[in-house]
């Protein structure tokens, strides 16, 4: 007899990106040579200074509970790191450290969203956003952005989607999966809209260090003075310093929001890992702070080469992403060539026939596209393109 499980499980689906990784790992255990474009993490190692700080924390027995908000030194370092952007008044008490950006975002949903509230979600969106909103009792309102503009976020369609129950807007720039970056003029319009309608603005800046054009650099944190308590900024050490497994994310917000977040976190993870907090502190206060500037050139070269290769595959069209490390091509032509009805079917056929792991666009709210991560070695990118070309040429 199957025991009854919680009804809220019917509201959500498992993470598609985690599922792709699990399938790729299963095939590898069976001896299959998998080309894996699924992972949303850099293929580089954590900086040496970060690793040494983690080892030192263990050797110094820094392995006990810390304050729920994180050690003061790390909160202080984060406040200093963002002070110029957020204004000179940014305090350590306006920073909360958590067990990865995903955990921080989920706890924020629980803290900010009431049952019945609507949250505007530009599409394409990160796979966990709609599920987190639903688990908090809210309703995600998906607002499609124009693929002809590379899915650039625009304020106008968001304004049209606002209703009586709208409580918040989520912005992810650079965007996972499209790599789109919020333009400065649209940021201005969005800020005006949020202030006028008195909404929460949740800014997920996890990929903030992966911006390829100097003109695109910027953040909604730049508008903190105008937005006031409405702005909640979230980022993580995961992508910037290749620290995905260390699980350190953080939020910057007004003190009442930080207190609400920590009230929930204190009953969830309690705190981020003590060892990882020391490693994160080293990322901000040692030579590792320069690592992101060195990394971006590696990824720029990969982006340019890989996207050019995708555009040579019959039935595939890809815009050049302005940020992050994903290509998100339109594969509708390839679907027609192969007689496939969805990008989910396409991804299933790719991994079955060519052992190429990708993530279907349905996971991000756009069914005609597929996400490829180019955060992998050049030889892997080349092999993957060769297999994709062979797949496209097969009848």
Q: Can you offer a commentary on this structure?
A:
There is one protein chain. By secondary structure, this protein is of the alpha/beta class. It has two domains: 142 residues, Aspartate Aminotransferase, domain 1; 239 residues, 3-Layer(aba) Sandwich (Aspartate Aminotransferase, domain 2). Strand 3, helix 5 and strand 4 form a beta-alpha-beta unit. Helix 4 packs parallel to helix 5. The longest helix is centred in the last third of the chain and has 20 residues. It is globular and about 60 Å long.
Set down the secondary structure blueprint.
Elements: H1 16-29, E1 35-36, H2 48-59, H3 72-86, E2 95-98, H4 101-112, E3 118-123, H5 128-135, E4 139-144, H6 155-161, E5 166-172, H7 184-197, E6 200-204, H8 224-227, E7 231-236, E8 249-252, H9 255-265, H10 274-285, H11 291-310, E9 326-327, H12 332-338, H13 343-354, E10 356-357, E11 359-360, E12 370-373, H14 378-393
Parallel strand pairs: 1-10, 3-4, 3-5, 5-6, 6-7
Antiparallel strand pairs: 2-8, 7-8, 9-12, 11-12
Helix pairs in contact: 2-10, 3-10, 4-5, 4-9, 6-7, 11-14
Domain module tally: 2
Name the strands of the widest sheet in spatial order.
Answer: 2-8-7-6-5-3-4
- Provide the CATH top-level class of the largest domain: Alpha Beta
User: Would you tell me the overall average pLDDT?
Assistant: 94
Return the CATH architecture of the largest domain.
3-Layer(aba) Sandwich
Q: What shape does the CA trace take?
A: globular
Q: Characterize the main sheet.
A: 7 strands, mixed
Which key features would you list for this structure?
395 residues; alpha/beta; Aspartate Aminotransferase, domain 1; Aspartate Aminotransferase, domain 2; three-stranded antiparallel β-sheet; 14 helices
